[in-house]
Amino acid sequence: MTNTTLRPPSSCATTPVMLKSLTLMALLIVFSLSAGCNQGKSSLPGNAPENGSAQTSTEEAPPQVKNTSSTPEYQKIIDERVGPVKGFHLYSRPSLPEEEWPEIPEIVKKNHSWNKIPRYLAIYKNTPIFGEWTEAELRTLAAHDIIQLSTPTENADRCNLAAELKRRNPNIIILGYRNLCLDYTSMDGQRFKDHPDWYLKDRQTGEYVVHGENEWQSRRPVYDIRKPEVREWWVQDIDEQLNLPNFDGVLIDAFAKAVVRWWPRVRAVGNSPEELLEANESLHILLEDNIKRNGRQGVVIGNALRPIYHDCLKSYVDAYLHGSYLENIEQLNEHYERTLGHLIDTCIQMQNEGGQKLMCITMTCYDPPRPADQNDGGAKMHLFDEVKSEKPLSPEETMALMRKNFEYKLAIALTMASDYFYFGYAMTHGANNILGLYLPDYPEFKRPLGKPLGPAVKTGPYAYERKFKHVSVKLDVAARKGKIEWK
Predict the structure, then answer these.
(1) Quick one: DSSP state of residue 217?
(2) Which element (helix H / strand E) includes 481?
(3) Which of 310, 338, 382, 446 could form a disulfide with 89 if both were Cys (CB 3.0 to 4.6 A apart)?
C-alpha cells in the first residue's frame, strides 16, 4: 500500500482561545416532567431535492402517518415503553416555537443528494502505530458525503487530513468535534493546568470527578458548565472550529451524559430531582448561546437522539441543533423492540413535521437480541448497552457479520431517515488498515436510491414500510427482519 504524506495548509495553525467577558442573560426554561416536546405543523416541504433542484415525482406517495405524539394516548404508549427506566425522563426540555428552530445550513442543502445512499463516517488514525494514511484509505474516505474528525483546534494533523479530503472531493462536508462534558486533553493538558477551577469536583471528597476508572478515563476531567467562563470558552471554541479552513461544522458529543443522571456528574451536582434539573439550566444557557452565535456559521449537530429517553431528546435537536448523530440505536435489553420502536416513531414524527433536520445514522453489525418468545433472559442488560457479540470476533468474522446483517440495519436507517440523511456502517472509528471494518464497499452503495416519497408508514406495533424513488423498505422490528427491494 502506498503511504500519502499530507501537507499542512498554511492558514490552519491553531491559535489560543481568547477569553472575553460576557454578560449572560439568565434563561428561564419552562419545563414539565410529564410534558412532551413542542408540536406543530410545518410549512416546510416534506422532501429534499434529489440533486439540489426542485423535482416532482410522478409516483404517488404513500399516506402519511397521523402525528399523534402530543395526544394523551401516544404519551401513554411512551410511558409504557420507557417509563420504568428510572431517571431517563428527569430532564428539562427547551420550549421553542417551531418557527424559531435553526434552519439547515446552505452547504447541506446544496451538497446533499439522494442519488445513492448518502454516507457518513467518524474516523481517526493512530499514525505512530498504523502509519500514515494510505492512498486507498484517502480515496475511500473522500468518496463519503460527511466525515467527522476529532477536535481540529487540539489536533493540527486533522487540518492536514481535511485539506486533502477537500482537494479530492470539494463537496465533502467535514465536521470537527467538541464534547459537552469531557476534556479529552486530560489532566495533563495545558487547559487543565491553566484553569483547574473549570472542572467538577466530588462534593464529599473534593477530588476531581473523571470519566471512568481505566487508565485513560481516569485522566479525563469533567467540565463545570455552570460557570460562565467555561461556557464562554466552549462557545468560542466552536466558533474557532467553524472558521478553520476546510471545516464545515462541528459534532457536539455526550448529550446522554449532560442531560440526565450520569454518575460522575451526580457526585458533583447532586442526585435530587431539583439539583439535576437546576444543573440542566446551565446546559440550556450554553446550547442556546451556541446556536445563536454559531448556528449561521456552519453545521451544528449533536449526539442527541437516543431511544431510552422520554422524548428521545427530540426537543433538544429541535431547539439547539441542525440535526443529530445517532448511535446506540439498538439496545441490548428485554425492551429491544419497544425502545427501538420508540425512536423510530419519534423519527416518523420528525418526518411528518417536515423532515428538515440532518441525521447521521450509524449502525453496528451485531445481531439483535432474540425476540422475547425466544429469549432465555440473558438479554436483560443495562440500557446503555448497545447490541454486541457474545464472543470476541476476528476481523474476518466481523466483516462476514457486517455483510449478513447489512439489509436489516439499512432498513432501520432508511425507515428513520430525515430529508438530510447520511448512513454510517463501521465497526471502528479507528483506521487500522483493515478497510472492510470501517470502509465497507458493498454494491448497494452504488445503486440508485432516490428521494423518499413520504414519511414511513406504521403497519403494525413494530412494523413499518417506506418507499423511495428506486427502493421499497419493509421493517419488522419484532421479527428482527428488514427487506429492501431495489427497482
Answers:
(1) G
(2) strand 481-486
(3) 310
